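User: I'll paste a sequence; please echo it back and then give the predicted structure.

Assistant: Echoing your sequence first, then the prediction.
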Amino acid sequence: MPLEHNRNLTDAGNPAKPAGKAGEDMLLYMNKEHKDLTLWALDIFERGAGDRILDIGCGGGETIRVLSERIPTGHFTGIDHSEVSVKLSGETNASSIREGRTEILSGSVSELPFEDGSFDRIITVESFYFWPDPPESLKEVYRVLTKGGRFFLVSEIYERPDLTGRSRSNIEKYKMNVPGIGEFKELFREAGFSDTEIHLKDGEYWIVVEGIK
């Protein structure tokens, strides 16, 4: 897809909260565009993955679909504040929903509708950019994670001196949260995580920030 088409699709779809037909088209494109990033992150995620797994900002539902295939005994919950994302995630994961292994809910990371310690593993892929009040939202993630559980924050970019001009332009245009490694560690520490591990992909700007409760 040409670069200008990508930009037009993103602008029309609203990456912060996808809406309408343009939002659905953008999510379908992102399912493909972020495939390699997601698979790399899930190879890290699977180490000791527990049975109860939450995907925050589940978008087009591809992360849950891959996880449900790789962990057939797991139970998966997706949550997103975009109704278009909830609809598309439901369609993408229709079979595992019918089997009772997956549920997709509408809601915000700022007030997760779950009891304390509800999940063994939590993941978010390319959504932290748009979280409201990141320090408080991370405390919500920590709250619903079980003791000893792990949270995986997956991002295609993080703050570093060699970010491209296009990346910096997008960060400013869409008002994205893009911490650096040190900032991520401090945010996770303040949220309560006992340890934070950083995973980087050689040759890419990709990062997985792994918080351990």
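Confidence is low (pLDDT under 50) at residues 1-5. Residues 20-33 form the longest helix (14 residues).
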